[in-house]
Amino acid sequence: MNFRLTTLALLLAGPAFAEGELKVYHWFEYIPQELVDKFTAETGIAVTIDTYDSNEAMLASLKAGKLGQYDVAVPGDYMVQIMAAEGLLDSFAREELPNFANIDPKWIDVPFDPGRQSSIPYQWGTTAFSVNRDVYQGDIGSLAIIFDPPEELKGRINVLDSQGEVLALASIYMGLPQCSTDKTQLKALSDMLVAAKANWASFGSDTAKDVLVSGDAAAGMIYNGFSAKARAEGANVEYAYPKEGMVVWMDNMVLLKDAPNRENALKFMNFLLEPENAAAVTNYAAYTSGVIGVEPFLDEAIKSSPETNPPASAPTGSFVLVCDEATQKLYDAIWINLKK
Amino acid sequence: MAGIADQTPATGDDSYRRIVAPLLLPTWAVIGIFLVLPVGLMAVYSFLTKEFRGGVDWQFSLAAYDQFFLNRGLFGDEPPVLEWTYITIFWRSIWQAVVATLLCLAIGFPTAWFIATRPAHSRGVWLFLITIPYWVNLLIRTVSLKFLIRDNGPLNEALLGIGLIDGPLPLVNTNLAVQLGLFYSYLPFMVLPIYAAVERYNFALSEAAADLYASRWVTLREIVLPIVKPGIVAGCLLVFIPSLGAFLAPDLLGGAKNFMIGSLIDEQFKGSLGNWPFGAAVSMILMTLVMIALLLYARSAAKGGAA
User: Which domains does chain A have, with CATH numbers?
Assistant: First the structure.
């Protein structure tokens, strides 16, 4: 009896006997389990992962009282800025991350966290669109494919169900600044979107790949890695690099405020900055790492994928900007009007 | 144990209450914790000030209701006029739910009648068959339905194959698909209460009506329907109310092109709009509408019963 109780206690307290624990709040299906196991094997730290399916859901849950229960999270670029403004982030000194020097220099002075006070790059990619080449063979080098589509694609277009990305791409298409407060510009943006919507079949973010693979949609706004997966699943889709520009995004691992295991969090972040480990995430997620020296560890298919190797003529991407409250209200109104 | 066994309820009202009152505590706790508290919280939140990007400031405000009913122009500098945006969304959801309910009634009533008129020993099998699809998660069933009705799915392939149509029927991403999805999701909620009502129906009444030269139609209208009406009403409510707030079917089958009440509320809490008081206010308005409908029904039912 006593023996059994002891065993039970040991089982329940398992992690406590290891070198502590780490609580990760992460996107669904965004880190390979083998990599987590490798971290545990190297450090003895037991890792618990809870998942979320949107930046906003993660923010809502942290604000609703989960702050202090997690050590790290993986917000997108604009969300890092929002979380910092909301006081949800802790900062670290560069010396605390021995591998800090592995970060690609171009990703250190990013607009959403200048100098990388609280975040490290996780994966980055672009958002544009893909076209099924069996259906449409013409030129796809313009966002007009989505916003003013050719006859073959009318009524067969899927658009991301994401306010930030749709409005940013629409602004890029029209050559308007993001976070504009100019009445004429906003009116034009809204009118263009309402007219374009008549040619769209559906809104969907997590279904963006499936509708292309199944043929429900012949073209669709999509993230580059998602398009690579659609291609891998047999859809004859080509990812476009539109001349007007595209959206670039970056997911970042941040150190959360009141992290219960701050030391372990920093160990984990440092671990993810090892080129071999960063490459493991890239091989899994099919986006691009923000760490230098990953090439030798990348799968051949990832290394040569057209979705992550833009042609020289490709435009530079723009991050989705964070507007102030009064301006955001205007964009919210445009989005609601579009979907009412 | 022995003490309780000694006191039989028959010994009097007081001891009966002494035993029953504590036994009811869990019920009160459930109602309090899972009904009163959350709804109360929502009512309070709907009158608070929105915090930018989710959350609330504890400051009284009517902004959420103002946003719902009044349109002050994109820049808030125009004289307020009635806001149609959200009324349109409500109207769309109500319309979809009404159609889904009518579809369920049209298929559910004959189905329930059929099952209730089978020999007693085989009714269980039929009911069992009705419930089988519902062992599977709603999301998976909705996605499967989408596979069936898509342009190059089996339904269209079959219709094309037998030459009934020349091109694929556009079903996915239409209102029809949404109604089909709602109908499919909630059909058993219609069948089961009607079955329960029809099963208790005394078929001798139909025979008596026939003896008195009532046509089948008159029998149905004057005898059967009034008797099974509670089952029909229960079924309609059980289908209508969840259809009203549904967002799986509209999102997956309808292509999420237009907000429904459910997705509008969802977007306020989980989406980029992040306006909790407004989400709470929309929920309260929806609840009020449903409550009014139920009260009106209850009043007319009471009058009908008295007459």
Answer: 2-124+250-303 (3.40.190.10), 125-248+311-339 (3.40.190.10)
